[in-house]
Design brief:
It is built from 8 helices and 4 strands; from the N terminus they run H-H-H-H-H-E-E-E-E-H-H-H. By secondary structure, it is mostly helical. It folds into 2 domains: about 55 residues; about 130 residues, no CATH class. The strands form 2 sheets. Strands 1-4 form a two-stranded antiparallel ribbon. The chain has a two-stranded antiparallel ribbon with strand order 2-3. A hairpin with a 2-residue loop joins strand 2 and strand 3. Helix 6 crosses helix 8. The protein is globular. One of its GO terms (biological process) is DNA transposition.
Length: about 200
């Protein structure tokens, strides 16, 4: 809630600069900067309370450490995943969570007719989806690594860039569920063990 309000006020600061009288804008700018400063303090306080709460529970702090070991998953994304999944108790399957976050594509069909191409659901939780999108952008576009190579390969095949980013989001979700399920830190260079 605080973050949304801060975004609105910051947007007002930049949007109305060209359209307002300079004196009116200065007064409004000062007022909005005071509000955003207070909101920043409140946000920092809430984030610290969340960190303290997670640090007080060994299971939650272990989950946070495991999730943050994955490229593209930062502290905010990891905390949001822990909260959304109720410490990975409410969702046992990553595919169900992909549906919840609007990452899984669905086809619209009736009988033998297919009405459209595959699309993601608009009823998704947009807050976690945006965090996953930022993580996917981090690992897919400007960096090196497995997901970057995957992104480039799929785009070279002619896939839509947003569809490929959506697939990278799904891969991040699957990796998060895998590290929690296996209770192991993510290994970038995983070596398969032969029996």
């Amino acid at each position: 809630m605080y973050v949304c309000d801060r975004g609105k006020y910051q947007g007002q600061l930049t949007d109305q600069k060209r359209f307002m009288d300079k004196e009116d804008y200065k007064r409004k700018n000062k007022r909005l900067k005071n509000l955003t400063g207070e909101l920043n303090e409140s946000i920092a306080q809430v984030e610290q309370e969340i960190r303290d709460l997670i640090a007080s529970d060994p299971a939650l702090s272990r989950q946070l450490k495991l999730l943050c070991s994955i490229d593209g998953v930062g502290e905010r994304t990891a905390v949001k995943m822990i909260v959304e999944t109720n410490a990975f108790k409410d969702f046992g399957d990553p595919r169900k969570f992909c549906c919840h976050t609007g990452v899984a594509p669905f086809s619209y069909s009736s009988g033998s007719s297919i009405r459209s191409r595959n699309r993601v659901s608009q009823r998704a939780d947009k807050s976690i989806k945006s965090l996953l999108h930022r993580g996917a952008l981090t690992v897919a576009t400007p960096s090196k690594g497995e997901l970057h190579e995957y992104y480039l390969r799929k785009v070279a095949e002619g896939k839509n860039k947003m569809s490929v980013l959506n697939a990278v989001r799904a891969k991040l979700v699957h990796r998060m569920f895998a590290v929690i399920r296996n209770n192991k830190v993510y290994e970038k260079e995983y070596q398969y063990k032969l029996a």
